Automatic annotation (TrEMBL):
It comes from Streptomyces violaceusniger. GO terms for biological process: transmembrane transport. It is found in: Cell membrane. It is a multi-pass membrane protein. The keyword Membrane applies. Residues 106-318 form the ABC transmembrane type-1 domain. This is Sugar ABC transporter permease.
Amino acid sequence: MTAVTTQQAAPAEEEVVTVKVAAPGTAIAVDEEPEARRPAEVGRRSWWGAAFAAPHSIGLALFTVVPIVASLVVSFMNWPMIGGHTWTGLENYRRLFDDPIFWVVVRNTAEYVILYVPLNLVVSLGLAAWLTPRIRHRHIFRVLFFIPTITPLVANVVVWRMLYQPDGLIDATLQSTLGEHAPNFLADDTWAMFAVVAMSVWAGFGYNMLIFSAALDAVPDSQIEAAQLDGASAWRTFWHVKFPAISPSIFFATMMTLITSFQVFTQPFLLTKGGPGTETETLVQYIYNTGFQNQQLGLASAGAWVLFVIILGITAVQFLGQKRWVHYE
């Protein structure tokens, strides 16, 4: 006798039934698994899931959740790096808003964001629109444009310092062609922020370029061909067909670029040390100097939470405004 074992679950009661199919003329036996086995099986599976998720969950709790909560508590305390600490309530926030340097670095950060975000998006979107399938070996160009993004930022800063410094490549080129010296970009109040922004755009546009390029490749050819048959120019085709189609990708890139630009630290810190004076000192650098140089951890934590509220507010505005121009169809 040949027996085949199959399992089927009744939709109404979700019971597991074992059916043994025997040879013709032989009786069929039906056994129902005990009800007590199902909770135990579910419990074992839950424990296995928890066990696999535990390393990540523990790491998230120890290195993300706990520090965030601790920084909020510290922001309400006078907490020097060495010595005792006392509860001061909102005193750190009052000192922060009364500090004129704080408003200078907020202005510098806003200036950086206003310059960097549009330039990054325009350069990355323009290159992505250029890298159409008609461009031969476009994958090579993608790799070349993406290399600055994956290059360590410290190495990028070293190269750009050599370009910006007196008698550097830019200065030498202007002297040989126009007979004029280039301005001292990193020591000039007028040029320092522009120098930081230019270096940041070069180092950061590759990521958004890949996002936009992949989104443009996903635009249906039928829509583009229909627009061309209607006599639409290349610009109108891009603005009225391609742009709405890739608007979710543009929204994502805009939001992420805004968040990272408010958190800029490495470029101004290594290029100018925040100088000349405080012309390029950003909010994150101010928090760093307050906490680790002035050793005022409570005041630094208050600055970090002010930055968090700023980013949270701008992100909320982005999500509310995206309903007007982002199309998910």
